[in-house]
Amino acid sequence: MTPASSLDAFIARAFGRSSPLCVAQFGDLAAEILVDDTARPQGFEHALINTDAAPQARFAIVVGDDPVLRRFVPERVDEIHLMRTPDVYAYWRPAPDHGFFVFTRRDQRGVCWFPDSSAPAWAIGQPCVSLLPAAIEGSGWVLAHAAAVGKDGRFLLMLGPGGAGKSTATLSCIRAGWDYAGDDYLLVNPQRGLVAPLYASVRIRAGIASAFQALVNEAFAVSDDNGAARFELRIPKVPHGGRVVALLSLDRKGQKDVTIGPGRPQDFLGTLLRESTARAPGSAPAAASGLLAVGRMAETFRVDTGVDPAAIPDAFARLLETFA
Amino acid sequence: MVYYRTDVPETASELFDGELVIAHYGSGLYFSLSPVGALIWQGLRHGLSDVETAAWLSEKLSGNAAEMASASLDFVGQLAAEGLIIAVDSRATSGELPVVPAGVWQAPVVERFDDLQELLLLDPVHDVSEAGWPHRPDDAGQ
């Protein structure tokens, strides 16, 4: 029996334990989400964007120990394990928040299994994110660590490392009535110049929570991200995507006011490559060309979002107007 | 005189305002080539040999011809050593020869970043064999 075919038993078991939760939209991909009885009350639906479209893929989310699934835990449990073939992507994520993620292209089925009694909060805020690079490979879309807000179908794509101010800028714009296409992870199509949302959720650090208290009060989960609390928030307005008109390379330099100046794609590409492939190790070879091409989607600006979140939407609006 | 191919397996590259970025999954490294370095890479991609590329840039840019030729050949050697180009037996044209903006020669530079190495170097078939992970121990002998 080959490793790939042995995964059929894993997938069959996971789907056998699960029943439908919803059909979710991930960019162009509609996927039926199934959960088992342990996963069902954990709130995965809060982050998903529901759709009436016919599903092209099926993802099962299973939480908790299982005598059949347990047999696929690798011997060296504390090491990353990957298998990547033309048909199969399989990723064992080691402790502390270990999980096993499998996607098979031949039947467009994927499984997220979290062996502990509850799924980690990041996985509840970003359901199935580790399956998506394999599921969308070849579609022209790539999973990107970025945020995007816009108006009238024109979007600003924000790039930069954690702590650069993406979530602050995103929430400030949402509060000001902007459209939202994602925070932390979203989809981009460099050839078509488009951005599309994956989730209706935003993750914010405790440090900026007080600036968005009304939203934080409605947080559906609180993550522990390397010892730092992250609030998982559901965005009330249905997210949607559009055309990317500018790339914002966010970088805090201690400016008081929002400052926007010329930037270079080289300033964010390294971070984009690293962070975009972090949730699905092994995806870099397929995704790297697309991620590098993000730098050609639009003009790049270097942005310091300043100290007053309320000032961000006006500054961004002035920039957006130049692309009318 | 040596010809090279620039469409190297396990790499992805993109030009931005004259600078070239290359991600190499085989080494797990990420490179940024200065504008003159990017021109050299494009000359090789177009099918010029290392010597022809040096001569082409010497014609287009002002500077000491011998110094330009020497630095250009050294730079090609550096790209080859990093696995960003591969020597081939004959000329293989691919891509347009770019317009070289008039100016003074500046020594080509390749910057090398290793902060992606952990992610890019992950072996995509780690620990997998007929009897390896992921498998069910119960399957042995079936």
In short:
Chain A has helices spanning 3-16, 121-125, 132-136, 166-175, 206-209, 213-216, 266-276, 284-293, 312-321, and strands at residues 19-26, 29-35, 57-63, 81-84, 88-93, 99-104, 109-114, 142-145, 147-151, 154-159, 179-182, 185-189, 194-196, 201-205, 221-225, 228-234, 242-250, 259-262, 299-304.
β-sheet strand percentage of chain B: 15-25%
Number of strands of chain B: 8
User: Any low-confidence stretches of chain B, pLDDT <50, length ≥5?
Assistant: 122-127
Q: Biggest β-sheet of chain B: count, sense, barrel?
A: 4 strands, antiparallel
Series of secondary-structure elements of chain B, N-terminal to C-terminal = EEEEHHEHEEEH
Structural class of chain B: alpha+beta
Strands of chain A, total number? 19
Task: Describe what this molecule looks like in 3D.
The complex is a heterodimer of chains A (324) and B (142). Chain A has two domains: 3-136, no CATH class; 142-321, 3-Layer(aba) Sandwich (Rossmann fold), CATH 3.40.50. Chain A is built from nine helices and 19 strands. Chain A has helices spanning 3-16, 121-125, 132-136, 166-175, 206-209, 213-216, 266-276, 284-293, 312-321; strands spanning 19-26, 29-35, 57-63, 81-84, 88-93, 99-104, 109-114, 142-145, 147-151, 154-159, 179-182, 185-189, 194-196, 201-205, 221-225, 228-234, 242-250, 259-262, 299-304. In chain A, the strands form three sheets. In chain A, strands 8, 9, 10, 11, 12, 13, 17, 18 and 19 form a nine-stranded mixed sheet that branches. In chain A, strands 1-2-3-7-6-5-4 form a seven-stranded mixed sheet. In chain A, strands 14-16-15 form a three-stranded antiparallel sheet. In chain A, helix 7 (266-276) packs antiparallel against helix 8 (284-293). Chain B has 142 residues and is an alpha+beta fold. Chain B has one domain. Chain B contains four helices and eight strands, in the order ββββααβαβββα. Chain B has helices at residues 35-46, 50-60, 65-81, 117-120; strands at residues 3-5, 11-16, 19-24, 29-33, 61-62, 86-88, 103-104, 110-113. In chain B, a hairpin with a 4-residue loop joins strand 3 (19-24) and strand 4. The model of chain B is unreliable at 122-127 (pLDDT under 50). At the A-B interface, helix 1, strand 4, helix 7 and helix 8 of A face strand 2 and strand 3 of B.
